[in-house]
Design brief:
With 120 residues, the protein is mainly beta. The chain is built from no helices and 10 strands.
Length: 120
């Protein structure tokens, strides 16, 4: 099973920027859509942005114009460039395929995620 390791999160002031990375343990060439999801306490995990193997990106309305998703199929890495961050962007960010990869134990596989905290 592919492993996904997210990194790049941290504490930033409103208006600041962060760049998240997601390293896959094997090739992602065959995965049509990779993306980023986020989950805030008490809220469901939601899609933030996805990018296809051909580079077509799709964004959730709250992040349009501020976030940019990309992928490097040679490095097996997916990125999320986040600019003009807002306190409401505070969440744990996860990368995954879209739809999410299956877990060997059943259900969906999720990595450990990376925490993004935006202070006002």
């Amino acid at each position: 099973q592919v492993q996904l390791v997210e990194s790049g999160g941290g504490l930033v002031q409103a208006g600041g920027s962060l760049r998240l990375s997601c390293q896959a343990s094997r090739s992602i060439n065959s995965i049509v859509a990779m993306g980023w999801f986020r989950q805030s306490p008490g809220k469901p995990r939601l899609m933030v942005a996805t990018v296809t193997s051909s580079g077509t990106a799709n964004y959730a309305d709250p992040v349009k114009g501020r976030f940019t998703v990309s992928r490097d199929n040679v490095k097996n890495t997916v990125y999320l460039e986040m600019n003009n961050l807002k306190p409401e962007d505070t969440a744990i960010y996860y990368c995954n395929s879209n739809p999410p990869l299956p877990s060997q134990e059943g259900g969906a596989y999720w990595g450990q995620g990376t925490q993004v905290t935006v202070s006002s």
